[in-house]
Specification:
The chain contains 16 helices and two strands. The chain has one domain. The chain is about 65% helix and about 0% strand. By secondary structure, the chain is mainly alpha-helical. The structure holds iron/sulfur cluster (2 copies). The site of one iron/sulfur cluster has 15 residues, from helix 13. One iron/sulfur cluster binds near residues 247, 267, 268 and 274.
């Protein structure tokens, strides 16, 4: 592996591992927090606000309530902040969230690598079927966006925000994962197996979050540009693209499937032929500057949210203890 490729692989995987480690830490801390709440033991472990990253529907309702009433979600503020950070990153740097930050994307990439190791390659779903099932993520997205932004009034959104179920939805989500039903295990197992055979199966076909980010990423000023004059048509860019984009055939990649992974840039044998750049005289982004930009935007959102008091929930431990048994009754 050339040192240029080495540096690229190390940097992107380094960022992916950093976020996966943070998510793991948040998950373990949250489990300890819930054990405390349920066993009524002394509170030693604080609730990690970052767990709200896993409540995208609550964040979408929070966004609706914020737009409609001007009041920022006090129940899951970190969820809304993370959601805003994700859409900002996508509107600036394509779907780079998917290939650099999202732990599910990282897991998906790892599963595809296992498949490549086992079978020597990943398999391809025929084009006609690929087009058809790629629409699934947009259909799921449409139902969420339509239901929340057009089916709910501002008052409905606020009522949902303060509903007991939403208040403890983080704990309900954990319980759901801890006590998966046979059906849940079968569905997850099937997605895992399909991800081993087909690269990015979940992200490409099923993830509505990825669908939303893909649509937003069309607005991104940064796109993959190919210099048609210096290109020698070797096809390495297309071959290396995990999202089946025919990079060698276009001068600019508009596809909502582009995750800004920069594989194509680093596989191209001709220097300066493919770049992630913006047309407005902005400097192009190398792997290093993209990594720094992503981390910078992410950190900025969290720091501003913490300083302005939009990070920690208003929920107290006592409120958790009061509401949880009630919601558990509904849930079973
Ligand atoms: S390989 Fe290039 S075109 Fe394909 S997803 Fe990555 S950055 Fe986009
Ligand atoms: S890898 Fe580079 S040289 Fe080869 S087809 Fe793609 S842009 Fe052209």
């Amino acid at each position: 592996m050339s040192s240029k490729l080495n540096k690229y692989v190390l940097l992107r995987h380094g960022v992916q591992i950093l976020f996966a480690t943070i998510v793991l830490y948040i998950g373990l801390t949250f489990i300890l927090f819930v054990v405390q709440v349920e066993n009524e033991t002394l509170t030693k472990v604080s609730r990690p606000a970052g767990v709200e990253a896993f409540l995208p529907i609550s964040a979408l309702v929070g966004l609706k309530a914020w737009i409609a009433t001007g009041s920022f979600d006090p129940i899951h503020p970190a969820g809304l902040v993370i959601f805003l950070a994700v859409i900002t990153v996508s509107a600036l740097f394509k779907r780079a969230f998917c290939s650099w930050i999202c732990p599910i994307g990282t897991l998906s990439e790892g599963l595809a690598k296992i498949g490549k190791g086992l079978f020597g390659r990943n398999f391809l779903i025929p084009n006609w079927l690929d087009y058809l099932i790629r629409s699934i993520k947009y259909i799921i997205l449409f139902f969420f966006v339509w239901g929340i932004f057009f089916g709910m009034s501002g008052a409905d959104a606020v009522a949902f925000m303060y509903s007991p179920y939403n208040m403890v939805s983080d704990i309900k989500m954990l319980k759901f994962m801890q006590h998966l039903t046979g059906f849940g295990i079968t569905v997850i197992g099937m997605i895992v197996i399909l991800s081993v055979f087909y690269e990015n199966f979940w992200c490409r076909y099923l993830c509505p979050y990825g669908g939303l980010l893909g649509l937003l990423s069309i607005l991104s000023p940064y796109k993959i540009f190919r210099n048609q004059k210096s290109c020698i048509q070797c096809g390495k860019c297309t071959k290396s693209c995990p999202n089946r984009i025919l990079v060698e055939q276009v001068s600019r990649v508009w596809s909502p499937e582009c995750t800004g992974c920069l594989n194509c840039v680093h596989q191209c044998p001709v220097a300066e032929t493919i770049k992630l750049k913006a047309p407005m005289g902005l400097p192009h982004l190398s792997v290093k500057t993209l990594a720094l930009s992503l981390l910078g935007v992410w950190a900025m959102f969290i720091i501003v949210a913490k300083i302005t008091g939009h990070w920690e929930t208003n929920m107290t431990i006592d409120l958790y203890k009061q509401i949880l048994p009630v919601v558990n009754q509904i849930g079973h």
